């Protein structure tokens, strides 16, 4: 495979600094950099190219979030970390689909990443649960919560948008909405 200079894989340090600095260029190079390795692994272990893309995308998101949260310590090569995360995700998918995962063909060293993958999946589940709770909340609560916590609107903006007489009334409504959301979210 012929790698021209501008599409070459960035160093591990460049990737970490690039993600911390929101560099799209580094992310693009990272996407291209190790995909062939993951594609080869998935194709040789009961998967196809779409599977490889999905798994790789998920692994990059896990890496991205871990670096952004500031708790990423590189105790292996980034290549090994990405491969290990992809491998872990793929093994879980194979076992969920009752496909044979016994004889996995490996191409790289493997690093223990179970915790990172499980944490990512847990956050995804919580997000889906939260979205469902928001959907059950109804209006105006759903929009107030989204405007304040997701869109980062000020209480003044929310006050004007919903026609409250003052920000205290808007805050009271937001508080009531939050209490309702908690009740829905924490229902067994």
From TrEMBL:
<dbReference type="InterPro" id="IPR036388">
    <property type="entry name" value="WH-like_DNA-bd_sf"/>
</dbReference>
<dbReference type="InterPro" id="IPR013325">
    <property type="entry name" value="RNA_pol_sigma_r2"/>
</dbReference>
<keyword id="KW-0805">Transcription regulation</keyword>
<keyword id="KW-0238">DNA-binding</keyword>
<comment type="similarity">
    <text>Belongs to the sigma-70 factor family. ECF subfamily.</text>
</comment>
<feature type="domain" description="RNA polymerase sigma-70 region 2">
    <location>
        <begin position="30"/>
        <end position="98"/>
    </location>
</feature>
<dbReference type="InterPro" id="IPR013324">
    <property type="entry name" value="RNA_pol_sigma_r3/r4-like"/>
</dbReference>
<dbReference type="InterPro" id="IPR014284">
    <property type="entry name" value="RNA_pol_sigma-70_dom"/>
</dbReference>
<dbReference type="Pfam" id="PF04542">
    <property type="entry name" value="Sigma70_r2"/>
</dbReference>
<keyword id="KW-0731">Sigma factor</keyword>
<dbReference type="InterPro" id="IPR007627">
    <property type="entry name" value="RNA_pol_sigma70_r2"/>
</dbReference>
<keyword id="KW-0804">Transcription</keyword>
<protein>
    <submittedName>
        <fullName>Sigma-70 family RNA polymerase sigma factor</fullName>
    </submittedName>
</protein>
<dbReference type="InterPro" id="IPR039425">
    <property type="entry name" value="RNA_pol_sigma-70-like"/>
</dbReference>
């Amino acid at each position: 495979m012929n790698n021209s200079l501008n599409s070459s894989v960035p160093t591990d340090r460049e990737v970490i600094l690039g993600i911390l600095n929101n560099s799209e260029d580094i992310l693009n190079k990272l996407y291209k950099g190790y995909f062939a390795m993951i594609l080869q692994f998935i194709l040789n272990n009961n998967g196809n190219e779409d599977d490889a893309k999905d798994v790789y995308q998920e692994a990059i998101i896990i890496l991205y979030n871990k670096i952004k949260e500031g708790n990423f310590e590189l105790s292996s090569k980034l290549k090994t970390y990405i491969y290990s995360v992809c491998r872990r995700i793929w093994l879980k998918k194979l076992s969920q689909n009752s496909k044979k995962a016994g004889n996995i063909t490996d191409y790289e060293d493997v690093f223990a990443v179970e915790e990172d993958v499980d944490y990512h999946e847990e956050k995804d589940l919580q997000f889906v649960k939260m979205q469902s709770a928001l959907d059950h909340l109804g209006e105006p609560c759903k929009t107030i919560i989204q405007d304040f916590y997701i869109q980062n609107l000020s209480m003044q903006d929310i006050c004007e948008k919903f026609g409250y007489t003052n920000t205290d009334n808007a805050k009271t409504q937001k508080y009531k909405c939050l209490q309702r959301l908690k009740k829905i979210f924490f229902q067994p």
